UniProtKB/TrEMBL annotation:
<keyword id="KW-0966">Cell projection</keyword>
<keyword id="KW-0969">Cilium</keyword>
<keyword id="KW-0975">Bacterial flagellum</keyword>
<dbReference type="Pfam" id="PF02154">
    <property type="entry name" value="FliM"/>
</dbReference>
<protein>
    <recommendedName>
        <fullName>Flagellar motor switch protein FliM</fullName>
    </recommendedName>
</protein>
<keyword id="KW-0145">Chemotaxis</keyword>
<keyword id="KW-1003">Cell membrane</keyword>
<dbReference type="InterPro" id="IPR001689">
    <property type="entry name" value="Flag_FliM"/>
</dbReference>
<dbReference type="Pfam" id="PF01052">
    <property type="entry name" value="FliMN_C"/>
</dbReference>
<feature type="domain" description="Flagellar motor switch protein FliN-like C-terminal">
    <location>
        <begin position="254"/>
        <end position="323"/>
    </location>
</feature>
<keyword id="KW-0283">Flagellar rotation</keyword>
<dbReference type="InterPro" id="IPR001543">
    <property type="entry name" value="FliN-like_C"/>
</dbReference>
<dbReference type="InterPro" id="IPR036429">
    <property type="entry name" value="SpoA-like_sf"/>
</dbReference>
<comment type="similarity">
    <text>Belongs to the FliM family.</text>
</comment>
<dbReference type="InterPro" id="IPR028976">
    <property type="entry name" value="CheC-like_sf"/>
</dbReference>
<keyword id="KW-0472">Membrane</keyword>
<keyword id="KW-0282">Flagellum</keyword>
């Protein structure tokens, strides 16, 4: 194998180092031999470049933000999710790194082949379950298998969260995540070969007073068809796409014919659950508005006008009296 050709300045520098005693010929030879030898672990074959790993990191940082908002609204408590690390390791090493009893969502991402794993630390999973069922979000010290009802509750929660994954991945691929299995023992998972390279995205997760990790495991076979989409050049080309005047004109025309729900609200009232259970035909519920007071007309659930009820051609109708001003919503 041919060696690298040195420039005249590099040759002069080496001769000067030898002549001044800063470096001996033996040290130069030893350093050269050291540079030639590079250790390589075949069990940790690196299938993705640093550039591609950075792209995956950006995608899942966006996913973490979307997931934070989603779980905050669903669990009605403080939630903070952030990307801790993105690594490529053998699948066997990932399985060994997670607890023996944990919560693992297995889902497909058509049109891509293969399955993706989402592993939720038991502390986080039980805290979520406790919040959904009306608790304070506490996690038990011991981990048990989920009952059928608990499994169904958690399945529904994570199926709804996949919309956020679909949105985050939109920059690299159009996927349609489908939950196929919920497992608690990682030893039962035989998705791919133990030595197959996978990308593991780890998220630091805080729910109320409970903290833990959520890990997403993506096999190389899933990402292989979209590897070109993970390059910086693809991201730059995607960012340069702008809406043309023709596209903007089409969007505006379609918006003009979009339908919006209009609701004329007669009023509101509050009753106890006990009264609600005993409601019968003929019972009267008193509203919080006088019969002479104008009604509120909502467009897309936003109050926009005050109106008065009436009839038009033997149909119920309302007449607009005044427009309501609503700050940012008043557009």
């Amino acid at each position: 194998m041919a060696g690298d050709v040195l420039s005249q300045s590099e040759i002069d520098a080496l001769l000067s180092a030898i002549s001044t005693g800063e470096m001996t010929a033996e040290e130069m030879k030893k350093e050269e031999d050291t540079r030639k030898v590079k250790s390589y672990d075949f069990k940790r074959a690196l299938r993705f470049s640093k550039d591609q790993i950075r792209s995956l990191t950006r995608v899942h940082e966006n996913f973490a933000r979307l997931l934070t908002t989603f779980f905050s609204s669903q669990l009605r408590t403080y939630v903070q999710i952030s990307v801790a690390s993105v690594d490529q390791i053998p699948f066997e090493e990932f399985i060994r790194s997670i607890p023996n009893m944990t919560l693992i969502n297995v889902f497909e991402v058509p049109p891509l082949d293969g399955n993706i794993l989402m592993e939720i630390n038991p502390n986080i999973a039980y805290s979520m379950l406790d919040r959904i069922m009306g608790g304070a979000g506490e996690s038990p010290n011991k981990v048990n298998s989920l009952t059928e009802i608990e499994t169904k509750i958690m399945t529904n929660l994570f199926e709804r969260s996949f919309d956020n994954l679909r949105e985050a991945w939109a920059t690299i691929a159009d996927i349609d995540p489908i939950l196929t299995e919920l497992e608690v023992n990682p030893q039962f998972l035989q998705m791919i070969s133990p030595n197959e390279t996978v990308v593991v995205i780890s998220f630091n997760t805080v729910i109320g007073e409970t903290s833990g990790m959520i890990n997403i495991c993506i096999p190389h076979v899933v990402l292989e068809p979209i590897v070109p989409n993970l390059s910086v050049r693809y991201w730059m080309q995607s960012n340069k796409k702008e809406t043309t005047p023709e596209q903007m004109d089409t969007i505006q025309k379609q918006l003009k014919y979009s339908e919006l729900p209009i609701i004329a609200e007669l009023g509101e009232s509050e009753i106890t659950i006990e009264d609600f259970l005993f409601l019968d035909v003929g019972d009267v519920i008193q509203l919080n508005k006088s019969i002479e007071a104008p009604l509120i007309l909502k467009i897309g659930n936003i109050p926009k006008f005050t109106v008065q009820p009436g009839k038009l051609r033997n149909k119920m109708a309302v007449q607009v009296l005044e427009q309501l001003k609503g700050g940012e919503d008043d557009e």
